[in-house]
User: Fold RIC1 C-terminal alpha solenoid region domain-containing protein from Brassica napus.
Amino acid sequence: MYMAYGWPQVIPLLPGSCPSSQRIVYLKLAGKLLLVVSPSHLELWGSSQTGERQPSELCFASMSLLLSEQVPFAGEDLFVSNFVRDGKTMLLGLSDGCLYSISWKGEFGGAFTIGSQRSDSNDDRLLPYTLGNGLVSGVDSAAFASDDKISTKSAIVQLELCTLSKLLFVLDSDGTLVVCSVNKKGLKYTESIKAEKKLAGDAVCASVASEQQILAVGTRKGAVELYDLSQSVSLLRTVSLHDWGYSADYTGPVNSIAWTPDNSAFAVGWKSRGLAVWSVSGCRLMSTVRQIGLSSSSSPKINPNQDSRYEPLMNGTSAIQWDEYGYRLFATEEASCDRILAFSFGKCCLNRGVSGKTYIRQVMYGEDRLLMVQAEDTDDLKLLHLKLPVEYQHSYYPFCFFFMSRLETNLLHIILLVQVSYITQNWPVQHVAASEDGQYLAIAGLHGLILYDVRFKKWRVFGDVSQEQQIHCKGLLWLGKIVVICNYIETSETYELLFYPRYHLDQSSLLCRKVLLGKPMVMDVYQDYILVSYHPFIIHVYHVKLYGELTPSSKAYLELSTVRELSIMTAKSHPAAMRFVPDQHPREREVDSDNLSSDLSDREPSRCLILRGNGELSLLDLVDGRERELTDSVELFWVTCGQSEEKTNLVEEVSWLDYGLLHMCLTVWYPSLGDDPFIQEDFLQLDPELEFDREVYPLGLLPNVGVVVGVSQRMSFSASAEFPCFEPTPQAQTILHCLLRHLLQRDKNEEALLLAQLSAEKPHFSHCLEWLLFTVFEADISRPNANRSQISGPGHLKKLSLLRKACDLIKHFPEYYDVVVNVARKTDARHWADLFSAAGISTTLFEDCFQRRWYRTAACYILVIAKLEGPAVSQYCALRLLQATLDESLYDLAGELVRFLLRSGREIEQAPTEADTLSSPKLLGFLIFGSSHKKSSLDKSSSFKEQSPHVASVKSILESHASYLMSGKELSKLVAFVKGTQFDIVDFLQRERYGCAQLENFAAGLELIGQKLQMSELQNRLDAEFLLAQMCSVKFKEWIVVLATLLQRSEVLYDIFRSDLRLWKAYSMTLQSHLGFAQYHDLLQILEEKLSATAGEGSSRGSIS
Assistant:
C-alpha cells in the first residue's frame, strides 16, 4: 500500500535542453541518475550536489557511446515503438505490424509477424514521435478487426513481456491487444510466438506486474482494465475516475501506467488531466484531480481560472516512473519539459516478507520518516513531529516538539522523522517492525539499526559506528524484548540472524548469532518460535530458549534449536507471506495425551497461513507438510488468535481475517472442531458496512479496540504553495457487530456478552449494537418466504432464534431501547411485527422509556405503536408524552408530537364506519381521550365544540401550558413553545387579554419582565422582538409599552404617546420616580424631544390656520 504525503517537489531541468515544442515521453530512474527521453534525443541527468538523498536540482551527466549497430531494415518508412528483451534476445515493434528479433551479441534475426514466416520488407528509420511505452502519435486509429487474424497493417505501438507467465503482449495502433505465448526457452525461438487471445479494441497502453500476474490495460475511455494472467487473462476489474465525477472528456485517454517496484500498486497518468495511484484491489490511494463527488451523472465543468494552479498535472501527464524503492513517483506534464514533479510516498508494513507484523500500532514509513496509527482513549487526533540534531554524542535522544489537531475519530496519528544522523548516512528506510507491546519500533536503513521508544520518545542507536556499518539488514522481527535482525554478510555472501536486547545495541550485548541456510524469503515469529522460509520452498522452525534475566545489570544468553524442517515440492510460486496460526483446539491425537491440560499458547504452532503473490491463501500443516487451499484473490491477511494476552483483546475468538481483491471487503475465519478445521464466514453477505470505501485502504487490526484501521488520502491547500499538500488520514471501521453476530451464530452467548461488556465504554459501542441487530434482522426477513404469518412450527422458531439471541444480548445494556427503535426506523414497517415479536411489545418498551424520562426515545416508539397497536393507542401514548415534554420544556419534540397527533386524529376520523369504530378493541383509547379532554379543557372558546376531540385535546394541553408560562411570565420559554409547536399565540392573547396575560401594574410588570428577559443577551432580545410583534398584532397596549421600553424602541413608544399625552406623562413619571429605571432616562429624553417637536409643529399649524 502506498500513500502520498507532503507537497510535490519541483525539480527544474536546465533551460534550453529541449525545444519548447517537444516534451518528455519516458523517464527512468537508477540511483542518482535520471534518464529523460524526448522525441528526438536522450538525456542523462544527475544530481547537482553530491551526498543528497534525492536530487533537488538536476544537471547533465556524462554519457558515452559503447556500441552502435545499424539494423538492416530494407524499407524507408518504418518506425520502432519500443522493445522487450530477455537474457539473450530483444524484440522490436515496427510500424508495419511486424516484430524484429536481435540478439544481445548483435545477431539480427530479421522481421516476422506473429504466427507467420519472417519478412524482409523493413525500414531503418525510427519512429519520430512516441509516448515511451504508449500510443504512437500521429498514427490514425483503425477500426477493430472483426476476424481473429492479426492485422499486419496496424503499427505496433507497444510490447510487454511477462517472463513468469511466458506471455508477450502486442498492442496495435487500432487499439487491439494481442496476447501471445512464448517458448519456455526464450524469445530467441520466434517461430513459437503464437497469438492466443485478443482483448478489447480501445487499448492505448499496457503494463505487466510480473509478481502479481496482473496486466493493466489503459483505454481511450480513461479507464484501466486489470486482467488476471493466472486465470486465462480474465478481466479482474476496471478502475477510473468516473465515479468521482470525471469522465474521459476531461481526463482524456490513459497516457501511461507504472507499477510500483513490489507490484502492489500502480500509477495512472491521463493525457488531458491528472495522475492517480490505485491498489490492486481497486482502492484509490492518491489522486491529483480534485474530488467533486461520488457517482456523479455527469462530469463537472472545469474552470481553468479557478484554483487550477493548485492542481498538479492540470494539463495532463506525459510520463511517470517510480524510483527503485517506491518512495517517490516522478511525473512530467504534457507539453512541458522544463521540470519534473516528484511525489513522496509512504509504504505500509503489510505483514509480508521478512519484516515483522504490527498489531498495537499500525505503521507506514517513507524514505526518512514513520507514520503511526494507534487507538486513544480520547477523541483527539495528535500529530507529532520528531526532529533531532544531526550531530550526536550519545545513543539516546529525546524528541523535540509536537502539536495536536482534533478530528472525528479516536485514533492517534503520529509522524516521526527518523533520527537525522542515522538516516543521512543510511538512507533510505528499508525495514520497520513494532514490538508486540507496541512500545518500541525497530527501523533499518541500508546499514545498521535504530530503535525508538514510543513511551519515552527517545532513539537508541549503535554506539559504535563501525558495528553499525557491518549490519546490512534484510529483515526484522521482534521476539519479546529482543530484536532479531536478518543480516547479510557481503564478504561471504551469507545470511545470519542476530539477536540483540532492546536495551543495548552493541556487539558486547549480542545474545546469539545463527547462520542461515541461504537468503530468507519469508520470516515470522510467534512467542518462542521463529519460522524461516528459503527458496524454492524450504521451511525451518526454530525454538528460542533464553537463559538469565534480560536486564542491563545481568548477563543473559540465548540458544536456538531447530524443531522442524520441511522441504516441500510444489509447482506453486514461493510464498509472499507466512504467519503462524496458534492452535485454538488440540489435535485429535493429543486429546488423550498428558499435555491436554496445558495452555494451548505454550504449544508449538502446527499450522501456518501462506499468501502467494497471486492472491492465493492456503493453510499449511507443519506436521505432515500438507497444504490446503482456502481461497484466492486475497491481498492482505491478519492472524488474530493468540496475538494478545490482554483481556481487552476483542478478536481472540477469530482465527484470522483477510482483505480480498475482488470486493474490497473483509472475510473472517473461525476454528472448528468438525471435519473442516476452519470455517469461513463472509462479512459481505450480512455486513455490507465492511465493504471498504474505495478511498480507504485497511492498514491492520487493533484488537483492543475491535476496529480495522484504514487510511485515506486528503489534500490541504495553501495560498503560499503552488500545489496542495497530500495528507494521509486514518479511518476507523468497527467490526465488533460482526464478531458478536458470529459468536451468537456459534451459540457462544456468554462469550458474546463478555465481548460486548469489554466494549461497552468504546465510543462506537451503540452503533455496533445497532448494526448487529440490523444485519441479523435484515438477513432474517430477506430469506425466501420470510413472512411470519406463513411460517409455523419449529422452522419458524429456528429462524427467529438468532434474532432473539441478538435481542437478549442487547437487553443487558441501556442502549437497548434506542437500538431497537432505530433498527425499526431503518426497515420496512411491514416487518415490524417480526422485529418486536423478538424485541418485546412496543407499548411496554415505550412505557419503560417514559418512566425513565427518556422522552426522545419514547417518541420514536409512537409510530411503531400506531402501526402495531393502532392509532388510538398511539394517540393516548402521544398525549401523555406531549404533556411530559412540555413540562420538561422540550418544545421541539413537543412540536413533533403535536403534528403527529393532529395527523393521526384525522386518520381516526376517516374510519370506515361507526360500527367498526365501536366494535374495535381500541375503543378504550377514545374513552381515554374523552376523559382527558373533559379534565384538561378550559372550554373558553365556543369553537372547541365544533372541533374533533383529538384536536380539542391537543389544543387544551397547549393552551394550559401557554397559560402556565404566561402567568409566570416565562417569556423565553413561551417564545420557544410557540415556535416549536406552532401554537396560535395571537388567538390566545386575544382571549387572555384580561386573564393570565393581563398586566396589573406597569412598574411591577416592567421590573418583573426585565428580570425574566435580560436584554444583555442576544437571544432574549430576539425573543422580546418576537413578542412585541405579536402584541402589536393584537394591539395589546400594556405589553407593547413594556416590551418597547425594554428594547428601547423609541419609534414604537412615540406612535403610542403622541396621541395620548396623558399616558405619556404617567409613563414619564413612573420611570423617573423609580431608581431601578435609571437606564431608561436616555429613552425618556429622546421621547421628550420627539413629542416636543410634534407639539411645536402642531402649534405652528394652528397659528397659521
